[in-house]
Amino acid sequence: MELIDTHAHFTFSELEADIEGVLARSIAAGVTSWVTVATEPGGLEKAIQLAENHENMHVALGYHPHYAKDVTEDDLSLLKQLAASDSVVAVGETGLDYHYNFSKQDAQKDIFRAQLNIAAELNKPVILHTRNAFDESMAILEEFTGKLKDVVVHCYSGTPEQTQLLLDRGYHISFTGIITFKKSDETRIAAAMVPLDHLMVETDCPYISPEPVRNQRPNEPALMIHTAKKLAEVKGMELDEFATAVNATSKRFFGL
User: Fold this and answer.
1) How do residues 232-256 score in pLDDT, each as one tens digit?
2) Domains and CATH numbers, the chain
3) What is the DSSP string of the chain?
């Protein structure tokens, strides 16, 4: 069995300091390929370099909404330049975060639209971050109907109604360790709704360690096996069968 972690943050200090150990443990657990996601101004080249130095590591580039207030026109130009490379598999994560509001909402919307324009021009799929801003995120994405190659909503924990809207639009949905939490019944209902050809699995490490190792910090790809097992259970599948299906989905989405 082999799995792909479709959303990790290997350049974050919690993981970078022991990256060789993190990857060795991941491979031993059956998670053998990864997408490392850059999120902040000044961090794009670092993520590219890390991926270039490690086999089966791919890179996505974008600016998280937390940093929208700091993103300059030069930053956007650099993103467009670097993301044009065939080695960059997606633009993101990008979107809206109204939970923390570290950046003003208007700034978040502006930087979100700017990155969607880049993704459309480069024909790259988009990794969406949306928190407490689902309707607003969907409205902006609707402006780009027919222009975007593909969209995945990462770290998903939405309602069945939101899930159906995403599926109606043809978006992909990616689940983290949240699916394993005792109180995440609604997320498990959502996962049951998502067809395997639109479903992916991720860690969002160093965050969101799954049960039964929820207290382990940092989260890392070796622990994603617990998330995959829960998703396979929700789908009524054997783990190997589930892994084969979601790997095919992930490879198609990212062009791996």
Assistant:
1) 999 999 999 999 999 999 999 999 9
2) 3-254 (3.20.20.140)
3) --EEEEEE-TTSHHHHTTHHHHHHHHHHHTEEEEEEE--STT-HHHHHHHHHTSTTEEEEE---GGGGGG--HHHHHHHHHHHTSTTEEEEEEEEEETTT-SS-HHHHHHHHHHHHHHHHHHT--EEEEEES-HHHHHHHHHTTTTT-S-EEE-S----HHHHHHHHHTT-EEEE-GGGGSTT-HHHHHHHHHS-GGGEEE---BTS-PPTTSTT-SS--GGGHHHHHHHHHHHHT--HHHHHHHHHHHHHHHHT-
